[in-house]
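[Meeting: bench + compute handoff]

Bench side (C.D.) handed over the final construct sequence. Compute side (W.E.) agreed to return the predicted structure before the next meeting so the bench team could plan truncations. Sequence as handed over:
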Amino acid sequence: MRKIIKAKNIINGIADEVVKDKCIVIENGLISEIINFENFKPIDDDIIFNYENEFIMPGMVDVHVHLAFSGIPDNRSFRAESAELDYGEQALRGYEFALEHMSYGFTSLRDMNAPGKVAINIKNIINKKKLVGPNILACGLGLSVTGGHMDQPGWGSHVNFTNMTYPCDGPNEFVKGVRAQLKDGADFIKTNMCVSSTYNLEYPYRQEMSNEEIEAVCREAKMNNVKVASHTSGGPSITIAVKSGIHSVEHGHWLEEETINLMAEKNTFYVPTLLVNERNFDFEQDKNFTNSKNWKWLQLSREAKWLSLEKAIKSNIQIATGTDAGFMLPHGSMNYRELEYLTKGGMSNMQAIKAATQFGGKLLGINVGTIEVGQKADVLVIKGNPLNDIKILSDKENIIVFKDGFIFKKTHKMH
C-alpha cells in the first residue's frame, strides 16, 4: 500500500526555491518516487493526503541534545536530578523528551552525553521497533579529563557514582574510552577539548585535553569508522582537532580565521548552539552574579558567538542546528528559537531550515533531512509558510509529522 503526499508547496531541503505541485510517493517507510501532478497515476489502494495551502518540508534534525536531562535551569536542582533518578527512570523520562522533539517536527536527534547508557537504550528500543520515536544517534558518555567539563567536581568526598562520567588522563586512557563507548553501543564519540575560563578574561577559554590526547581520540575513532564531536570554546585546540579529523565543532564561541578556513577545507561541521548561550539572558540575575567574572564571560562569549557565526556563514562551512536541549532548555518547545537566532546571525529563513534539515542529516550520516527518492519518509506538513515566519514552528498544532510514512499523533501513537 502506497501513501501519497500531494502538495502544492514543498521545501525539499535542497533547492533554494519552493518546489511546486509534486506527489511524494511513500512505500515501506521510504520515499520511492516524486512525481509531477500531471504524471501521477493513482492505483486502487493508494492513500492520498492532499495539501494545497500547507508547506511540506523534511523532518528536522537537532544534532545536540541531552535526553537524560530535563533542562531545569537551576544548577543545584539539575545536580539533584542526576543523583536522585535511577538510570532506568532517566531513560523512561528521556523517551518522553524524545517524543516532545518529534511533536515539534524534530524527527532525528543526536544525543551528546548521557549516563548509564540512557540514550543508547532509548535508541535501541526505538530501532527494534518496540516503541515509536525519532531517529537517534548517541555517544554514550562524553570523554573528559579528570575534573574536566564532563567530570565536574563539587560533590561530597563520600559520593561515588557509577557510569555517570568517563574521565580519562593521557592518550592511552582516551583510546580506551573510545573503545569502551563503542562497546556499549555508541554511534560516535564526544570529547571536551577546551572549555571556558575566567582566570584571565583576555583569554576566556583554555585547552583541557592535551594535543596528544586529541590526536589519540581522533586516530582511534577513525580506525573504528566513527566520527568525533567536541565541546569547544576557542583557541588552538580547535585547530588541532580539525587537523586531526574531528567531524563537528560544538559551541565554538571563538573561531579564528585559520580554524574556519580549515573547517571549510575538511568539511567539518559547525554547531553554534546559539540558543543555550542566549538562554542565560532570559533570566533575572542577582547583582552579585552580574558583577562577577562569570557574568562577564557570558557577555564576552555572547559577542564572540555572533562574530564567529557571521564568519562561518561567509565562509560557507557546513552549519547544522543543535539546541543543547536538556541543559537549561526544555525539550522541543524552544527548538524553533535556534532557527530564529540563525536568521538573526545572517541566514535567510531557507538557509536556517536547511541547517535544520539537509545539513543535520549530512552530519548524522543517515538518509534524512531532504525530500528525495531513497530518503526516510520523515516529512512535516506546516500550516503556514516558515519562509515568511520561522515562529510558525513554535506551535506543535501547526505541524503534522509523518515518521517513516506514518502520521505521528500528539498522543504519541501512530496510525
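W.E. noted at the follow-up: The radius of gyration is 21 Å. C.D. will use this when planning the next construct.
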